[in-house]
Amino acid sequence: MRKRLNRRAVLRGAGGLAFGLPFLEAMRRSGEARAAVSEAPKRVVVWYNGIGTVLSKWRPTGIGTSYVTSEILAPLDTPSLRPKLAILSGIRGAAAEKLSGNGHAKGMTSLLTGRPFTEIKSTNFGDTGWGGGISIDQLLAKRLVNPGQLASIEAGILTRSGGPSSYMSYSGPGQGGVVPAEPDPRKVFARVFSSVPTGNAGSAELEASARQRRSVLDTVQRDFARLSGKLGAEDQERLDKHLALIRDLEARVQVGKSCDVAVAPAFADDDIRANSRVPELGRAQMDLVAVALACDATRVATIQWSGGESPIDFKAIAPNAPWSELSCPASVDSCSDGDSNSAHHVMSHILPSTAGGAPSDMSAAQSTAMTCLTAVYKWYSEQLAYFAQQLAAIPDVDGRTVLDNTIILCVTEVSEGPSHAYTDMPFLALGGSGLFKPGYFDFQNQRTQNDLFVTVAQAVGLPDITEFGDPEFSSGAISDILV
Amino acid sequence: MRDLLGDATRPGDRFVAESSQLGFTNGAASTLLSPAVVEDYENAAGALAKSAISNLPRLLGCDPVAVGEDACATDFVGRFGARAFRRPLQVEEAADYQALYINNKAEFGFATAIELVVRAFLQSPVFLYRVELGMPAPTQTAALRLSPYETASRLSYLFWGTMPDETLFQVASQGKLEAPADIRGQAQRLLGEARGVHALADFHAQWGQLEGVPSLHKNDARFSPNIGRLLLEETNRFVDETLRHGDGLLATLLTTPVTYLNNDLAAYYGVSGPSGPSFERFEFTKGRRAGLLTHASFMASLAHEAQPSPVLRGKFVLEQLLCSPPPAPPDNADTALPAADPSKTARQQLVELTSVVPCSGCHALLNPPGFGFEHFDALGRFRETDGSLPIDASGDLAGPGDLSGHFENHEELLRLLAENETVRSCIVSKWFTYTHGRGEGEGDACSLNRMRETFRSSGGNVRELLLSLTETAAFLYRTNPKGASP
């Protein structure tokens, strides 16, 4: 099942960044090259890019499979991707609506948890809190992981550490449950390719290293046991969680790694937070996730483009991008955050709501913002298309492609910037041939993200997941899109 | 790690980033726990242990040939363990690590067995966390006095950001770290040594939110990541010289025209100063710079790509100096500035925009302290004009608290702030949060009062504040998990 990659050939080229995905087929061991296995692993990637969209430029026209795509979604309207794309309009972020508070924090904390936030703090910035329970990616990770695999990989682009609007993945409720995305591709690389002992499965060398590891972790666990009961409740909870993670590590001792890759992505420390490197950082993270899925190092991943108050300044990125010729507002004053270059977040606040169609009386600044934001979201569609094509280029063990066995679920924390609304959430599902129905669906805000997550869980073979998150908002799978 | 193993690779730099809690990153809850973090710890422990045994004689401190391998290992477990745990090992702990050694020695050899012992110590919760159990006391007591070893750790992590040195271990073992005068004496020693710069530099970098300065995005070739790093270095040195070697006064920190520059920074600031790469004392001419907040590190980070931001600057003053963070603008507020108008300064445009309801309420507090820094552009360089129009850096303070008065420029504004009681009280709170990694609780009133009193009576001396906080109950005790609530 696990593919063996030649460690030398995979990564090479410009700055160590050109991942050799198209070569994967050639690297498979000859013996398993054509031996199609009937069942390939099912995988899920949660894709996030922030601050919603421009709804009037996002919605296709028509309905079902005969829709005409929109300006923003056009990059996904290729002959190979269209049959694998479900455009899911009219999903309601019901959990976010339940409580009042800071718009992006509410959206981010409830987005993947399907619950209103918890540990609520009344601050001068409006109520904030942390996620109210496990997020769908982490639940799927727990359920889909095989012994020896990473349960999940969380890759970020300019994700930041900070308050609740920076995070979307949770292993459980509260700040202690946060699973942060890793913005440094070098660290993602190290996690995927160097955290398990090397050697051939079953070899004496690997066996020895596994035994050593187990004896170290056993000693460590006895230190944990001795502290138990001597600490305050919060500290104890943290230690218990830490111990549980150590036990997870032990479970990974058994299996050798057959997917190690020699060359790490080359970035300098300053690059990781540099706005100007966003395209390269994004590509590195997408490529790493693709490789990790391809060699079955994990079955669940998240790709998180910044956070709820995205500081990405698109005007400064990529001189050839369309917005560089537009007079997009770049240096505007924002009192709501500490970003000096918050073009995306700030621009999104200039836009009027387009949920009911673009208003006819927009000011010049609003029209410009709409043009620029449309270009931004279209750029994200291009990135998504790139990622999907990478997965489509890798043959899977069942003779299909990795994309055919992977559902990419695209989400965002509000539907549009200015309204911070949680109706008409612009979600997508891409990939997963035969796992869900393609086409354009409009659920008229009668279905929630909770229902969508249940649908995805069932689509990847977990029929026992019949509700998710806050039961108040969970009414079961969306049968319209289930195959 | 540097002090435990002589390792200079700083493996922690590669760990998953911490979240922030109350504005500082050293709170217990801010270090997030995820599979990636625990894997980071394991990988780092493995790499460090491997590299440590490459120089076995140095690591061991005993000669396995002369005294026998097992005797040397026993000795090593006790000594290394005491340093890793910042206290002598308990009997069961020593037995467990001893067993780890014995169980692996036969199969994998002496060196590997030692390597595994080091690997385990470095992943132990007692090493990774600063465990504070306190000393035994009746269960109903609300607070437990920390043991001398725990007090030693609190001191060394506060002042040095690292484990206690040999002297601290020694005084702890001799019972000379219990009387307040002894503790203060050690605090003085730690602050006086070269690495005493840690607490002051780290506090101000976190308080000033300066971590991102090297990666600021400025559309100007004069700014670079390297300049950003030099600006941080300037601020660190300034803080060290002013608070540790100088008069230690908050007023000096906030108002002095003196700073520390090298040739690159002199060029960046546009002054003729030091001509070499090493940092030297430099005094700006009157009217130019006044203390910490006017460093380019602060001014450039409280700015946009090409424009300074009075709003971010005002917000910083309210949050970090006055402990009165302004509320966020309403969701429907249009926070974009209109296009640049050459007939008006950015200040005039901002005033027009924010003098109407619903903006005027908060901006009446936010704008004035922000306008005081109008002389500093987006790079933090001094400017006389905004476009072709003269700068107006004057204003009238109207709160919060007892803050009031008219100022003509940043010098006068900073003088008002430096002399203000709310500011002093806020700085005490910030130090409390930084030291204890938590917010103020009800039981902390005494400790805070004592800190405020010392700060006031010393004329706002930060050095005195720092020493006095080691004498407070908050520093010497922990909450008893089994005790009655205070």
List descriptors.
heterodimer, A: 483 residues, alpha/beta, Alkaline Phosphatase, subunit A, 2 domains, seven-stranded mixed beta sheet, two-stranded antiparallel ribbon, disordered N terminus, B: 486 residues, mainly alpha, 8 strands
Write the layout of secondary structure elements.
The complex is a heterodimer of chains A (483) and B (486).
Chain A lengths: L10 E2 L5 E2 L4 H4 L15 E7 L5 H4 L26 E8 L1 H5 L4 H9 L6 E4 L6 E3 L5 H9 L8 E5 L11 E2 L7 E2 L5 H10 L9 H24 L5 H19 L26 H17 L5 E6 L37 H8 L13 H29 L13 E6 L13 E7 L7 E10 H11 L24
Parallel strand pairs in A: 3-10, 3-11, 4-13, 7-10
Antiparallel strand pairs in A: 1-2, 4-12, 5-6, 8-9, 11-12
Chain B lengths: L1 H4 L29 H18 L3 H5 L3 H4 L1 H17 L5 H18 L1 H14 L1 H4 L14 E3 L2 H12 L6 H8 L6 H13 L4 H11 L17 H21 L4 H6 L2 E4 L1 H7 L10 E4 L12 H6 L8 H12 L24 H9 L5 H12 L13 E2 L2 E2 L4 E4 L5 E4 L2 H9 L2 H16 L8 H13 L4 H8 L3 H4 E3 L7
Antiparallel strand pairs in B: 1-8, 2-3, 4-5, 6-7
Helix pairs in contact in B: 2-7, 5-6, 5-7, 6-7, 9-10, 9-11, 12-13, 17-19, 21-22, 22-23
